[in-house]
Amino acid sequence: MKPMKIFNYKIIIDYKTDSFSSINFRPFLAGFVVVFVMTIMSYFGFHLPEYNFAIFSKQTNVNTIDVIKDKLKIDKHEYRLFKERPVVSRSYASSDFDNASSYISVNFENGKIISEKDQDKKLPIASLAKIMAALVALDLAEQSNLFDVSRRAANQTPTKIGVLEGQKLTLSELLNALLLTSANDAAEVIEEGIDNKYGKGTFVRAMNMKAEMLGLNNTHFTNPQGFDSKNNYSTASDLAVLSHFAITTYPLIAGIVKKDYQLLPADKNHNVFDLYNWNGLLGVYPGVTGLKIGNTDNAGYTTIVAAEREGQKILVVLLGAPGVLERDMWTAELLDAGFEKLGVSSANITEDQLQKKYNSWKYFN
């Protein structure tokens, strides 16, 4: 049964009409209003939710931050990007991928930059933010932990898998939805679960703390979904470092992003979910093993793709493509250019191959 809405009062206080010049009655009047409203609400059986205000005290907050820092700490991280001139051959100097806002292609193993455009330019990144959300979630919770779905989470805008208020999902299930289907509702469930445990705002704060630990100096997050915000941004080079760290340090993430599809069967906690990986190059470009795609109005179409061929592995980050097809074709061209530079022949995939892949996605439009 849904709770009844008893009343909706709007109280307006105009302090400019105060006729007492020598005494400041504002604190007394404000306190009276609060007590009055709470008394009326209590009379009608409505009670404010109970909060553990101790978590917001200075001392407790410091302790909480210390706990989080300990869980986020990085034992070893030596991966750095470097480049030698020239970083791209003359034959690729005017390729279609130069129409992207920014990109970088790197040797996955040693960090050598193969080609780049505005690699350090701060840009909106859309759902590529979910990579950081995934690894921070694994730092602060266990794969088997159950997370409750709130009404707010269920009402998130697409892309979403359609969780319902009152359902429960494990962190492992939520991460599959987060990374394969890029589910915004799954991201909200994870954020709320972590915040409920450690305090409101903890999850996003932890994402930024982790970025700082990784030396991602041109990256900042305001939400785990990747929604457009002036303070939600990163760069192609920062995302390359983040992606390498995620794949090499978190086996669960590496295992999820290389899957084309995952079924979450119905159980006592939730209904069935079909999770398709929206990475158009997976299963089309030879050797692709992930990683993540995104799209918002400000970011355009974004992607991070890792591929391995003939013992060589390349990572490409591409930001600001105008459409899905351009995003995937340009990334394929960058992979071809990179592999050729490493002595591996081009794959030369076609638009028809990609369209066939898009048509295989049940919920793609």
| Shape-level CATH architecture | 3-Layer(aba) Sandwich
Form type: globular
Determine the mean pLDDT. 85
Output the structural class: alpha+beta
**Count of distinct structural domains:** 1
Secondary-structure element sequence? HHEEEHEHEHHHHHEEEEEHH
| CATH domain topology | Beta-lactamase
Largest sheet, strands/sense/barrel:
6 strands, mixed
Helical fraction equals 25-40%
Strand order of the biggest β-sheet: 1-3-2-10-9-8
Number of strands: 10
Q: What is the assigned CATH homologous superfamily?
A: DD-peptidase/beta-lactamase superfamily
Keywords:
globular, 16% strand, 365 residues, two-stranded antiparallel sheet, 11 helices
Q: If you had to describe this structure to a student in words, what would you say it looks like?
A:
- Helix content is 37%, strand content 16%.
- By secondary structure, it is an alpha+beta fold.
- It has a single domain, classed as 3-Layer(aba) Sandwich (Beta-lactamase).
- Helix 3 packs parallel to helix 6.
- 40% of the residues are buried.
- Residues 1-25, 37-60 and 89-93 have low confidence and may be disordered.
